[in-house]
Amino acid sequence: MNRRPARRRVIGVGNPDRGDDGAGPACIEALRGRLPLDVELICCDGEPATLLALLESASETYLIDACVAALPAGRVRRWDAARRPLPARTGIPSTHGLGLPEALELARALGVLPRRCVVYAIEGRSYAAGEPLSAPVRTAVESVARRIERATAR
Amino acid sequence: MRSRTIRVDRLARVEGEGAVRLVVRNGEIASARLSIFEPPRFFEALLRGRAYTEAPDITSRICGICPVAYQMSTVHALENALGIEVSAPVRDLRRLLYCGEWIESHALHITLLHAPGFLGCDSAIEMAREHGEALRRGLALKQMGNDIITLLGGRSVHPVSVCVAGFHRVPRRAELAGLTERLERAREAALATVRWTAGFEFPDCERDYTFVALHHPREYPFNAGRIASNRGLDIPSAEFERHIERRQVRRSTALHTELRSAGPYLTGPLARYSLNFERLAPIAQEAALAAGLGRSCTNPFRSIVVRAVEVLHACDEALRIIARYEEPDAAACAHEPRAASGFAATEAPRGLLYHRYRLDADGTLLEACIVPPTAQNQAAIEEDLRRFASRFLALPRTQLRERCEQLVRNHDPCISCATHFLRLQVTGR
Question: Which residue, of B53, B105, B168, B239, is most buried by count of CB atoms within 10 Å of its CB?
Answer without folding.
Answer: B105
